[in-house]
């Protein structure tokens, strides 16, 4: 397939501005933006705002007192826009950007958040500038840059859902898979806290007067392990456990944090009924339990509309000589919130990379420009 004239106008602009794309990514990576560090997340937001302002792209700020502000950039007008999504927060604590600043070694770029997902954020920002600069009347495109995805988007979720409902298609520029494929389906996730309250007693003098919260939690954990079902793709991980007061006290308190993953809403409902039954069934009258949902992601379901959008993206890639496919992944993302609004949603349209959330995180630097071009053609 050949790149059409209208598409070539955008790809030529991207070629001419490759250094700006890499430079924007470097600025973002070198700006700490740990999810709970609002100052840092907003500083990364200002990097995006300053870049877009230079290309006459308007940006509205949706502020929050606790989490990083959400930025909404727009180009074009008329009809339902295409929504480009991305989050600029990372899992790395403040100071990591100075310890491991952006660098390129051979064919790879390194730095905190370079793959997840500052490369995708840079691509989205540059595409807004590209369309604004290349057309007198560009197609309507909205860029949504959030700052709390690693926390399950407690502030941004309503914004994501609202903008998605009013869009014709959504591209979420999370990293492409290490295979080079994009993501057409994701698991949903629910992050929960179980607390068990027991009755304390001296473990030597009054042992039988006490009722151990630790023992009760241990029994619940054994029962929770039965929820994992390889056939349906449902998994439940007990990731953190804590409890007790002292070694010689019958434990008055114990807690566990759970990670539940599921393929579709029906599987989620089935699993949650089992979780609640286990949590609230206590073996002694002196025991009580509490279940708190700390965050959740919806699954991204590969609907026919999403597969059709993927075909558009795949054809765009083919026009540049790139072969790729769509993959399902067990990780969660904001794309699930968008897809649940009934709008075709494709995820993983960022650069190709791997090792997210680790010091070895990287992208293949050549794919930064490559995937920006693919997405630009898909938008055209």
Tell me about this structure.
By secondary structure, the protein is an alpha+beta fold. Helices cover 36% and strands 24% of the residues. The protein has helices spanning 5-16, 18-29, 38-54, 96-99, 114-134, 157-165, 213-224, 265-280, 304-318, 335-339, 366-379; strands at residues 58-62, 70-75, 82-87, 103-105, 108-110, 141-146, 169-172, 182-186, 188-197, 201-202, 235-243, 249-250, 253-262, 288-297, 326-329, 345-347, 353-354, 362-364. A six-stranded mixed beta sheet has the order 1-2-6-3-7-16, sandwiched between helices. A four-stranded antiparallel beta sheet has the order 4-5-18-17. The chain is elongated. The two termini are 15 Å apart. The mean pLDDT is 96.
Shape: elongated
Q: N-to-C terminal Cα separation, in Å?
A: 15 Å
Beta-strand portion reads: 15-25%
Which regions contain 5 or more consecutive residues with pLDDT less than 50? none
| Overall average pLDDT | 96
Number of helices: 11
Rg over CA atoms, rounded to whole Å, is 23 Å
What strand line-up does the widest sheet have?
1-2-6-3-7-16
Order of helices and strands: HHHEEEHEEHEHEEEEHEEEHEHEHEEEH
Give the proportion of residues in helices: 25-40%
Query: Could you say which structural class the secondary elements and strand pairing correspond to?
Result: alpha+beta
Biggest β-sheet, characterized?
6 strands, mixed
Count the strands? 18
